[in-house]
What we know:
With 409 residues, the protein is an alpha/beta fold. The protein has 16 helices and 16 strands.
Amino acid sequence: MSYSTADSLPTVTLDDVRGAQKMLSGIARITAMEGSRHLSQLVGAPVHFKCENLQRTGSFKLRGAYVRIAGLIAEERAAGVVAASAGNHAQGVALASSLLGVRSTVFMPSGAPLPKIAATREYGAEVRLQGQVVDETLAAAQEYARETGAVFIHPFDHPDIVAGQGTVGLEILEQCPEVRTIVVGIGGGGLAAGIALAVKSLRPDVKVIGVQAEGAAAYPPSLVAGRPVAIENPSTMADGIKVGRPGDVPFKIIGDLVDEVRTVSEDALSSALLLCLERAKLVVEPAGASPVAALLSEPESFEGPVVAVLTGGNVDPLLMQRILRHGMAAAGRYLSLRLRLTDRPGALATLLGVLSVVDANVLDVSHVRTDPRLGLTEAEVELHLETKGPEHCAEVRGALQEAGYTVMT
């Protein structure tokens, strides 16, 4: 890699990305490009998914991790590597290390999902659970590196990582040469920077649009400030892009080459994950669904053909269950209601009869009859209903109100 005299930051070139592509031949899959008829209709132009959720380890992270570790000298390899991650980077480092014959230690938060912990161990890493949040886990990994001499493998802030992730951009141009816009999620920025570098070097006419979760959007204020700015307490269901501060190396590339960075809501992320599952039959984690969320939020603002990069598919089943319910609610297909009724025989049956008439499918009923908040003749009912969309939700509420019920939520 070369170094900029202006700011002494390492820079990444197209040759670096091409070198990474050769290095990854036979290691990383050339992932599929799948069309989305539903999104194509919304956008008014072809929309394709770049399915990095089908990559080995379930995300793009293997690409950068392998290139970074493969570039270590013999003495560094002998010392082993260490990483900190709640999931995708952990698995990428673990598999890359195993393929290269390097000992790896991965620190993960104590609350990391069990499937991700098990997968990281199965790929060959020693897993150490330490810290409640990723920042604490990161500090533990860096302390381990200082004490043992192991090489710390950063998840995004290194030129080798950026070059490895940039191979996704080369594949997109090969698989969809007519592309006009590429949409990709941004956390620390390694993937977006790599894609932008590779694509803009060959096709400066192609737009690259980054997407962040509203509650973890460090790039917009950083781009305004002209330097990486940390945000406090980033919060989003999309753990893969939940990063409080941009990386120095990717930030410069993104500032120079990415055309726009947008933000999306949690509701949009849930709806996007649900769409990927239902319409495309693809399991995608919330971070991986962020480009789809952006397309759903403002479909008319994208110039097609569009490629949306589905960055990963490693989602905990329990989280998936909650997200799907949230996504169904956001799409008007799941409705939670709380109301009070007179506590008398047949009252609950009468209520359910009203719901039956409007064809609302009752998933769950909670019937509370003894509570200090209730009057002597009152009962409270909480209902979880499967509905057919926003208009049907309004119809259900209207039917209940017309029947004399006061809907509380």
